[in-house]
Amino acid sequence: MDLIAQISQAAIINQHKQQTLIREYQETSNAGLVYRLGIMGGTFDPIHYGHLVTAESARWEFKLNTVIFIPSGRPPHKAEKCISDAELRYQMTLLATANNPSFIVSRLEIDRPGSSYTVDTVKQMFKDMGHLTDLFFITGADAVLEISTWRDVAELFGLCTLVAATRPGFDLIETKQGFDLPGNLINKIRFIEVPMLAISSTDIRNRVWAGKPVRYLLPESVKDYIKQCLLYQNLECAL
Ligand code: DND
User: Fold this and answer.
1) Which atom of ligand 1 is nearest to the CA of 139?
2) Distance of alpha carbon 6 from alpha carbon 88, whole angstroms
3) What's the CATH number where 51 sits?
4) For 87-142, what is each residue's pLDDT tens digit?
5) pLDDT the model gives residue 238
């Protein structure tokens, strides 16, 4: 199947999954139960198995009904960096998640003008989903260590549970000491261990630029997309 056909198919599958989410949400709330929704925010330049394994581990650990992947439109912390066009990152995320019925991709941040602040996204999800929803924002430990620099972080903690993925054997006590946050907020972060923390988008971009293999670091469909769209050929954007 050619690339355009693959993307169209992934977009149709995503639409069906969105309709299923709405139906399941209505059934859950009609039964008086709480819908548990994971949010995996990221630049996803490109998306890789570290992101996918983390989302799947969080889905399992926290009994989430669905995990929504939200590619950042304009990441606030990467304003000075060269990043791939949001549509390309969205399409890679669609391809990577197509075969998991519990994973959905949202255009929320891509279609919202201005910087993509997580607090705005979580507030919007809270408004859209209603009060019978528990939100879990999933991050890697590297991102969560910077969280004190995020916009309106105390408000964010009030709206969702922060889930931080750490490497097995990670020193949690040392990690917690690294946080520049009040203790009551640190204690609200839920840590999970995932096995693939060594994979990074930066390393994959470097490898593509240098002509090194990236197979088994990310889904084949995303690897082929990178090749066909000639991504990460420019040194400045590959680093
Ligand atoms: P990244 O650029 O780190 O995404 O952004 C993560 C999220 O933080 C996005 O939703 C941003 O909008 C949000 N953020 C950042 C800064 C400020 C604010 C918000 C604000 O509101 O002020 P990447 O694509 O690099 O990674 C996506 C996620 O996956 C991250 O949480 C990262 O730590 C994690 N990750 C891994 N987790 C497990 N194993 C690996 C991973 N590689 C990345 N191998």
Assistant:
1) 31
2) 14
3) 3.40.50.620
4) 999 999 999 999 999 999 999 999 999 999 999 999 999 898 877 899 999 998 87
5) 66
Domain assignment of residue 119, yes or no: yes
Contacts of 188 (CB under 8 A, 6+ apart): 157, 161, 162
Residue 196, ligand 1, Cβ within 6 A: yes
pLDDT tens, position by position, 49-101: 999 999 999 999 999 999 999 999 998 888 778 899 999 999 999 999 999 99
- Counting from 1 in the atom list of ligand 1, the atom nearest the Cα of 78 is 2
Query: What is the chain's alpha carbon radius of gyration, rounded to the nearest angstrom?
Result: 18
Q: Is 219 in the pocket of ligand 1 (CB under 6 A)?
A: no
First-last CA distance in the chain? 31
In whole angstroms, give the CA distance from residue 234 to residue 239. 9
Which residues form the domain of 59? 35-199
| Residue 165 near ligand 1, beta carbon < 6 Å | yes
Instruction: Pick the residue whose CA is nearest to atom 32 on ligand 1.
Output: 140
* Number of domains present in the structure of the chain: 1
CB burial string 141-150: b at 16+ within 10 A, e below: bebbbebeee
Question: Residue 236: inside a domain, yes or no?
Answer: no
